[in-house]
Amino acid sequence: GAGVSQTPSNKVTEKGKYVELRCDPISGHTALYWYRQSLGQGPEFLIYFQGTGAADDSGLPNDRFFAVRPEGSVSTLKIQRTERGDSAVYLCASSRGGTDTQYFGPGTRLTVL
Amino acid sequence: AQTVTQSQPEMSVQEAETVTLSCTYDTSESNYYLFWYKQPPSRQMILVIRQEAYKQQNATENRFSVNFQKAAKSFSLKISDSQLGDTAMYFCALTGANSKLTFGKGITLSVRP
What we know:
By secondary structure, chain A is an all-beta fold. Chain A is built from no helices and eleven strands.
C-alpha cells in the first residue's frame, strides 16, 4: 500500500503567520508521530497520537504548536505566530502502535522568513 | 531519560568495501528496541534494520548487520559490499515503553566510486 504522505513538501512563510502541515499515515496504522529535524541534527519528538487522542505531547516546544487527528487518520500540525527558529523539516511517522516500527513520510521543509 | 550518541560526524568508504558505523545509547528500561535509519538527500527516513533488546542474536538484513553489545550499550551497523546508493545520513534510534523515538545526531556516509 501507499506510504506516509505529507503536504506541502515545502512551505515558505513570513514571521508571525499561521501554518498548517498535513500528514496522511499508512492505512490501518493507529499510531501517528510528529518529529522536527533542524539542519544537521537528528529528528526530535513533538507529539504522538494513538487513535484520535494525543497520547504524549511532551515534545511540543510551546503553546504556539498544536496538532489534531480528529478521525484517527489524517493529522494536522498547526503553528501559530511563526518565528524564524521554527524553520526546520517536520517529519511525520506512523505505526501499528506500541513499539512497532515507525515508517516516515518525506517531510515538510518549513522556512520562516 | 533515553540518550543516543553517534560520535562520528562523517565517514567515507570505497565502493565494494565494508564500513562500520558506531552508536552508543543509554536507557533505564529493560525492554527496548534499537533502529538504524537511512536518510538520503530526498529527506525520506528509511528503516535499515531493527533490533529487539531481548534478542541476543544480531539482526541482519542482506548487506546490513548489527553488532549489538547490550552490556556495553553499543549498537553498531556494518554495511558490507558498499554501494553508491548507500551514500546518505544514517541515524541510530531507540524506543521503549513510551513509543517515541530518540535519535542520535547522525553520521554522513559517503561511498566513493
